[in-house]
């Protein structure tokens, strides 16, 4: 795939494809950098240790916290990081989120590079500048939008990616297909290998880029990318599911609520369910209604007593509408009963 540049209102990010070591050396040349790396990736790829100083972290939802942020600040101070130090992040979505937040706030912001190692991070988490951590039971409630100077996508990392993590990324690609329309949706539907080829990856990335460049700070159209995430984040935290699995279930619930409110027909919901099932992703799980109602109060998409909820009308057409939490909770109770 060809390299390209993402042009935001505030800055730009260069996206490179190829061997991460070669691209990194070419990009940084003689600049000093410190690596923040997923511990599992560090063990799988011992050559990382030869590149520079490395700080390893465990990459789980429990580690996506202010405690990890404080640990990274301390380690950066020990390594004498200063305003000229570049932060290079190697890992999946959680690692990118944490390290991006640390880089964006240490010394009021250090230049940083993301090297995503999972399908989810390559197609979604590394793009758009969202960095942050969880707080107690609240997903991504502390964070900042800050863009990396470079993103390096090296698909060779996918060779060591566990199957469940691979499917985790496919869920976000399915989301991109649902919101973008027939081209990507049909590519996924007719993909007999069920593996993500370069064309599908490119189309998925282009979908994400389209929305984040149009609305970098998420004040309008970018909210469309939250399709399935209102419920997905709650399910991820409360049911201890992978992000993609939870978002897949969230998309089904969002489709059923859209159908219940006469915004889409049953065929649209059915297409969403069948696509997720084709890629062996869950479409339902047990839900604690009382816990759901409590956690919905703290959703980042809240605006007083209202939610900016993403409804689907048909494949390729989703809309963001302000709706009361009471209405969502009422309809939610109906669709899960």
Which features characterize this protein?
20% strand; 2 domains; seven-stranded mixed β-sheet; 13 helices; 337 residues; alpha/beta; Rossmann fold; Dehydroquinate synthase-like, alpha domain
Molecular structure report:
By secondary structure, the chain is an alpha/beta fold. The chain folds into 2 domains: 4-160, Rossmann fold (3-Layer(aba) Sandwich); 163-335, Dehydroquinate synthase-like, alpha domain. 45% of the residues lie in helices and 20% in strands. It is built from 13 helices and 12 strands. It has helices at residues 20-28, 39-44, 66-78, 93-105, 119-125, 163-180, 182-189, 198-214, 229-239, 243-260, 266-278, 289-296, 325-335, and strands at residues 4-7, 12-17, 33-38, 53-57, 86-91, 112-116, 130-135, 138-145, 150-153, 302-303, 306-314, 317-324. It has a 7-stranded mixed beta sheet, sandwiched between helices. A hairpin with a 2-residue loop joins strand 11 and strand 12. The longest helix has 18 residues, at 163-180. It is globular. The mean pLDDT is 94.
State the helix count: 13
Radius of gyration: 20 Å
Could you describe the largest sheet, including whether it forms a barrel? 7 strands, mixed
Mean pLDDT rating: 94
CATH topology assignment of the largest domain: Dehydroquinate synthase-like, alpha domain
